[in-house]
Amino acid sequence: MDGLGRRILVAAFDGWNDAGEAASSAISHLRELAEYEPVFSVDPELYFDYQYTRPHIETDGEGRRSLRWPETTILRPKDPPPGPELWLLTGVEPARAWQAFAGELIDVALREDVTGFVSLGSMMSDVPHTRPISIFSGSDNEMIRTTLELERSTYEGPVGILSVLGTGADAVGIPAASLWASVPHYVAGHTPSPKATLALLERLGELTGATIPTGDLVTQAAAWEASIDAAAADDEEMTEYIRQLERTRDTWDSPEASGDAIAQEFERYLRRGGEGPSKPGRDDPPRR
Fold it and tell me: Where are the chain's structural domains?
């Protein structure tokens, strides 16, 4: 908590930042733990392309129909806890005017005396579902890296809106950190991934000092893993592929090799543009 202060804005966005819906599900879980109220929402006309992010029509309990437009909103807890306050930033990655979009949100964060910024993301990776979910914990802020023992990414290349917001927050004196979960790329049919959501929330609690009840996420994570076990049981090629990933992961986790492995995987993901493994190779599962 020392590094990020007491009022921490936690951000997650739908889209390529959200493999297995792990990051957006983490925000949804936090919203269910307490009552939140909106502080600010961007004007959707300025930032979203409705051909790609379409409005939804909905019917309420009395039969009235209305349109729900894409949004990005900052939320605050109605009854702040005595310890760290987790404010939430959630919505859709903008299609245009990213600098103006980030500027609006950071201005609100300054106005509301936000003291820290944590972005949540999830990426498709060459990792096995049978091992603990890897979390890349990083920051470009030297003080935060030292205080919270985080990594520094050396990646150069295209980024998502989370990086734009984190850079902008740091520039105005709001220290920023990022947490990225590695989701097995072969589990696309088993979305959402509660095991990755659970890993993000546990790491967020460690980073911020906030107490985050996990509810039934542990049970959901076990059921998710069991469902993939069952799907792979009748596929010898998939089973062997998972074993290969397990051997690689166990090598990563060995004391002599653990240092930069997760950071390297994170940077490989960004270089691929958030698309998961680029194309099948000899160690990839067969495409059916």
Answer: 7-271
φ, ψ for residue 153, nearest 5 deg: -75, 140
- 7-271 in CATH: which number? 3.40.50.10900
Asked if residues 102 and 169 have their Cβ atoms less than 8 Å apart, the reply is no
Pull the structure tokens for residue 226. Answer: 């069991």
> Is the pLDDT at 276 greater than 80, yes or no?
no
| pTM listed for this prediction | 0.85
